[in-house]
Amino acid sequence: MIRYCALVFVVLGTVRGCSPPVGGYVEPTAAQLVSYADYVVIGRVTKILTPDPVMTYNTTYGAQVQITCQYKGGTISKDITIIGAGFIPGLCFAKDLKQNVDYILFLSKRENGYFEQTSKALNTTDIRRFLQVCDLMLRFPSGENADFPSVRCQAPNMSKDCERYNPSVDKNTPVAAPSPPPKTVVHPSDHGENVQMGDKGVAQKGQITTTPSGAETNRFLSFVLIFAIMLQALLFL
What we know:
Order of helices and strands: HHEEEEEEHHEEH
Mean pLDDT: 74
Distance between the termini: 10 Å
Number of strands: 8
Shape: elongated
CATH architecture of the domain at 25-174: Beta Barrel
CATH class of the domain at 25-174: Mainly Beta
Strand content: 15-25%
Number of helices: 5
């Protein structure tokens, strides 16, 4: 009986539910995905890094990426490292990357120089849809020859008919906005500091924390119930 209860505790302790958006899942528009990100780039995954350089989850990993085209964000190096790829417990979707594949990447930058995805990476065949978003500008990463780039990049649409995300208009529309990861402690960075993601993915010192989801509350109640069952079973031994 004790062995059985211990096994139940282990299983419950490793399961985390996701928290779907209120009103149900609605695929984000191109303009929304762009607005969530600090950087929008096209890049090729050159190497998968295991374990994850920063996060302690055994379901995440890192990736080295070579940037070829940039459409949003400040100066970015040609070669970057992404952390938190794969699946973060508590999120409703995985942000998987595969080696030697080109992606449209939506990124935020961490204090320690790493980057993290604000949404799932998309196939480059979807680029035409994103070129219709307003305020994008074609540029190239540092280290790339803008006059003779190694990859030909498509320029964004500069017309007045471009697509713009207006949060005040769409605030009541349920969307699959990037969900924050559950509470965890991350490894110290190369500079000896822990990091925390801010409201837009900007890193801050400390630990990553979020408000517990409904699934986590149910898990806590399950703990209490099973503890009571174990205690009652022990009294009858």
